[in-house]
Design a protein that fits this description.
The protein is α/β, with parallel strands linked by helices. It has three domains: 253 residues, Aminohydrolase, N-terminal nucleophile (Ntn) domain (Glutamine Phosphoribosylpyrophosphate, subunit 1, domain 1, 4-Layer Sandwich); 206 residues, Glucose-6-phosphate isomerase like protein, domain 1 (Rossmann fold), CATH 3.40.50; 141 residues, Rossmann fold, CATH 3.40.50.10490. It has 19 helices and 27 strands. Helix 10 runs antiparallel to helix 17. Bound molecules: fructose -6-phosphate. Fructose -6-phosphate binds next to helix 10 and helix 17.
């Protein structure tokens, strides 16, 4: 989703701003722009529809340079992706970039138009530009009782944001104040970089790593003035505050593509490492300690009587998978709700329920709002499973587990998902333990009282097991060719592999644009069988589990209607290739953790089909990486 990069420093800023925008390209966008204050202090702006490369050419052509600047990639919400809607938006001598959505922009726009401000875009952001200008010029509707112009940009932005409703991360520069820029944050992420030669701001730390790894994470309500040598911050009440400078452990290398063709491919192949890092605490022979979820986790896990998982998209499928584990191993009722639905539904809170929010980015607006909603209903026990330690979701939950997948750049989530599954399995084991459901050595996997050590050993072995699935890439690539002329696909799974069918279908649709639907295989005859014909490939996830024989019967239903099956079967599943039935043998049967292996095969299938289709794998159309608006 939209990205912000800003700089006030000793060096010429536009090349840094453009490089920062390129780092943020993975978030998804459809236009880009920047504004700088040039050597004479004049405001210079360049914008372009399309890629940052087009903006770069425009900046070179127009010779836009200066030491203070703000830049933006826009993912269209209000108004089509056209240059006139691209940020920065200007009002008189000032320019603004903004992430988020201003919910009361229509009312503000009407007030500003009545004052004579003329709008030239369809965006909510232009409202902010005119609002700051109105505060600078002392418009009585906005400056309140003092009825005098706001003294400078810092004061004017503080005045302006007091009128905004919604979410924003914003940055403003103004002619006449050539050595500073002003930032503000509410809801949308924004961090400051503290560098040797200046100060910086961005919506994502990765954009700043080329100049610094020392970050200040702004809190909601913060407004700041950045100069080359200082940062001045006030909080939501207007009081001066100091925020901690944190060293980011991200390295510039971790966001490099390296030997891979796409970030998605790189991230699929990083999964053994990502799982190993996430499960590092199991590296000794030690037992599982609840403290990995936070100091109070042991007491909370023993007290809770059920689990409610809230998440969106791929993260919600991790939740759907975990539901099978939690109910089977921990014996606790577990519900999974799509965050964007839960937040608007009248639901009954249970203060003894554990609310688990799952998010790669930790900034997904719907998931964050669902968490706020759960808390407002009286839920006391909240836990985040998240890949970004400094994110809003982590800061707002009582307990947390940070997956260590590393930065995920490809829009389609891969390594974040498998590490979420690993974290959810650990959580399940601790809940089971807290409720007296884990036994000592030898009780066996899947029993009512499973054996802790056996399950931990399986977890420890996961990175190796995933490596073996990755070795299937050539066979999966060959299958992908067969999807080149297809427009629809059906994915079938049962039990804990139904969510993997959902995730496989989501991966395929988002990056190859093939319409894909997932069904629990037993549902086939209740409707979707009507769709099956020679043009509808049916992908089946066929682990050797308690439902395999039922699943084979479902596959017969497809074959009998002329459908072509693509079956991912465990080595010992006794499903063989025949006419209309293509079988790929997975390396090992992996019991409760089998979804982690099967999803890797689904990721590879989607990736290679997308290559065959020639789509933009890492930046699929219309999608954004971090969905920070509703
Ligand atoms: C799909 C995908 C999305 C995200 C969803 C939630 O590949 O990546 O469906 O899973 O937008 O994002 P997070 O996990 O950041 O909350």
């Amino acid at each position: 989703m939209c990205g912000i990069v800003c700089a006030v420093g000793a060096m010429e800023s536009s090349s840094f701003l453009l490089a920062g925008l390129k780092t943020l390209e993975y978030r998804g966008y459809d236009s880009a722009g920047l504004a700088v204050l040039d050597a004479s202090g004049a405001l210079r702006r360049s914008r372009a529809k399309g890629r940052v490369a087009e903006l770069e050419a425009r900046v070179a052509e127009e010779n836009v340079s200066g030491q203070v600047g703000i830049a933006h990639t826009r993912w269209a919400t209000h108004g089509v992706p056209e240059e006139r809607n691209a940020h920065p938006h200007v009002s008189g001598e000032l320019a603004v970039v903004h992430n988020g959505i201003i919910e009361n922009y229509a009312e503000l726009k009407a007030q500003l138009e009545a004052l004579g401000y003329v709008f030239v875009s369809d965006t909510d952001t232009e409202t902010i530009a005119h609002l700051v200008q109105a505060c600078l010029s002392g418009a009585s509707a906005f400056v309140g009782e003092q009825k005098v112009p706001c003294a400078d940009l810092f004061v004017a932005v503080r005045c302006a944001v007091s009128h905004l409703e919604g979410a924003y991360a914003l940055a403003v520069v103004r002619e006449g104040e050539p050595e500073s820029l002003v930032v503000a944050r509410e809801g949308s992420p924004l961090m400051l970089g503290v560098g040797a030669q200046g100060h910086y701001a961005a919506s994502d730390a990765s954009a700043l790593l080329s100049v610094t790894n020392r970050m200040i994470y702004l809190e909601n309500g913060d407004v700041g003035r950045l100069t080359r040598d200082a940062v001045e911050l006030v909080d939501a009440r207007g009081d001066r505050v100091e925020r901690e400078v944190v060293t980011s452990h991200l390295s510039a290398d971790s966001v490099e593509l390296g030997q891979y063709r796409h970030y998605m491919q790189k991230e699929i192949f990083e999964q053994p490492q990502a799982l190993g890092n996430t499960l590092e605490m199991l590296s000794g022979a030690g037992r599982l300690q609840p403290g990995i979820f936070g100091a109070r986790a042991e007491a909370v896990f023993a007290e809770v009587d059920s689990v409610l998982i809230l998440a969106c998209g791929t993260s919600s499928y991790a939740g759907n998978t975990a539901r099978y584990w939690v109910e089977q191993l921990a014996g606790l009722p577990c519900n999974v709700e799509i965050a964007s639905e839960y937040r608007y539904r009248a639901s009954v809170a249970n203060p003894r329920q554990l609310v688990v929010v799952i998010s790669q980015s930790g900034e997904t607006a719907d998931t964050l709002a669902a968490l706020h909603h759960a808390k407002s209903l009286g839920h006391r026990h909240t836990l985040a499973i998240c890949n970004v330690p400094e994110s809003a979701i982590v800061r707002e939950t009582a307990l947390c587990f940070i997956t260590r997948a590393g930065p995920e750049i490809g829009v389609a989530s891969t390594k974040a998902f498998t590490t979420q599954l690993a974290a959810l399995f650990l959580l399940t084991l601790l809940l089971a333990k807290g409720h007296g459901r884990l036994m000592g050595q030898g009780a066996g996997d899947g029993a009512d009282n499973a054996c802790e050590q056996d399950l931990l050993d399986e977890l420890r072995h996961l990175p190796v097991a995933v490596e073996k699935v990755l070795a299937l890439e050539p066979e999966i690539e060959a299958w992908a060719q067969r999807f080149s002329d297809k427009h629809h696909a059906l994915f079938l799974g049962r039990g804990r592999h139904y969510p993997i069918a959902q995730e496989g279908a989501l991966k395929l649709k988002e990056i190859s644009y093939i319409h894909a639907e997932a069904y629990p295989a037993g549902e086939l005859k209740h409707g979707p069988l009507a769709l099956v014909d020679g043009q509808m490939p049916v992908v089946v996830i066929a682990p050797n589990d308690e439902l395999l024989e039922k699943l084979k019967a479902n596959m017969q239903e497809v074959s009998a209607r002329g459908g072509e099956l693509f079956v991912f079967a465990d080595g010992d599943s006794r499903v063989e290739t025949s006419d209309g039935v293509n079988v790929l043998k997975m390396p090992e049967h992996y019991g409760l953790l089998s979804p982690v292996l099967h999803v890797v095969a689904q990721q590879l299938l989607a990736y290679h089909v997308a290559l065959v289709k020639g789509t933009d794998v890492d930046k699929p159309r219309n999608l954004a990486k971090s969905v920070t608006v509703e």
